[in-house]
Specification:
The structure is a homodimer of 163-residue chains.
Chain A: H1 15-23, H2 26-36, H3 42-49, H4 53-65, E1 69-75, E2 81-87, H5 89-92, H6 95-108, E3 117-121, E4 128-134, E5 139-140, E6 146-150
Chain A binds a DNA duplex (30 and 30 nucleotides) through residues 27, 41-43, 46, 51-57, 78-83.
DNA sequence: TTGCTAAGTCTGTCAACTAGACCTAGGGTG
DNA sequence: CACCCTAGGTCTAGTTGACAGACTTAGCAA
């Protein structure tokens, strides 16, 4: 059997791993999900994610430190000043990850009633989808049509023993 | 400030949450990353993910139980029969999630040298991208152009107190 | 002065992760 | 035969992290 080429390369500095270091836990995903739903306040986040307050606090701080969220102040009439959390551009750019999870969950893990939330194009109201395409304009239906190749950051492994 | 409509609805049975219940941890993502790279064997997975053997064992079993991987046997000449793990269709359909993470990581978390792996369309060799589109054919550039609306599974919350 | 609320922090318990040693089955070697 | 080698695990002990629930804080209102 032919071995995949990646086995000859280092794994260090993988971009997926770097991304997972920022959002690689359930809590962060739930927080981001709510942020994309427009939820901004601590208490609302807590009710909707079901996370313990401390975990939520940690996640919000971590996501803010990483620049995915930005802490802002708001004040309702007759209330003191409070904080809310808003997505930054960096955070918003994670949207495709959430959409991909939503689509997969809808296909394989949904309840009988269908999804709780659907996504519409704000301009035209049509449903939003993720599409895998190539820059030559072809649509890809499956991971099988994709070939991983070494990128510019690929480093040959110091081979210890036979590969 | 207007409150987001989701606050009036239940959070139960969210499809994102259901998806996260299957793959919502770092280990599972790393295993899937390697599976998409073509890695199939326990030892190779262990070296490349850096996961402790026990965690890897747990994740492989969990992903197999969930039907994302399938355990198969292989035998090299002069070797005893061993096991390998291959992606099922259900597992392969998670590919967009990994691609989304890869793209985000490439933009915001990559090292100076660029990505380790690039994705090519197997047929034409052009680089593969994930695109957010609507079914009317528009391309969306940002999460801001997306409007979440209640889906068929949305359930109004039993309101306790003012919303 | 007391109470209310949002947004936290503190504490104790329990589950999960981690490192590292150990085990096992089949084949090769002396 | 007796022994070693390897892939693919399991076992154990120690540490970290998640969780539930109580407590704290700041500002406004009665």
């Amino acid at each position: 059997m032919e071995r995949p080429w990646v086995l000859g390369y280092e794994t260090r500095n993988c971009t997926i791993e770097a991304a997972l270091a920022v959002v690689g836990d359930r809590g962060s995903f739930l927080v981001l999900r709510e942020a994309f739903n427009g939820v901004r306040r601590f208490g609302d986040m807590q009710r909707r994610t079901g996370l313990p307050r401390q975990i939520l606090s940690n996640r919000l701080r971590a996501l803010t430190d990483q620049g995915l969220l930005r802490k802002a102040s708001y004040q309702e009439p007759g209330q003191r000043q409070r904080s809310e959390y808003r997505l930054t551009r960096k955070g918003m750019d994670l949207f495709p990850v959430l959409v991909a999870l939503l689509e997969w969950g809808g296909r394989y893990a949904a309840g009988p009633d269908g999804p709780l939330v659907e996504l519409q194009h704000a301009d035209c109201g049509a449903p939003v989808r993720l599409a895998l395409t190539c820059s030559a304009g072809h649509m890809l239906d499956s991971a099988r049509e994709v070939q991983p190749v070494p990128g510019p950051g690929a480093v040959l492994a110091a081979r210890s023993g036979p590969i």
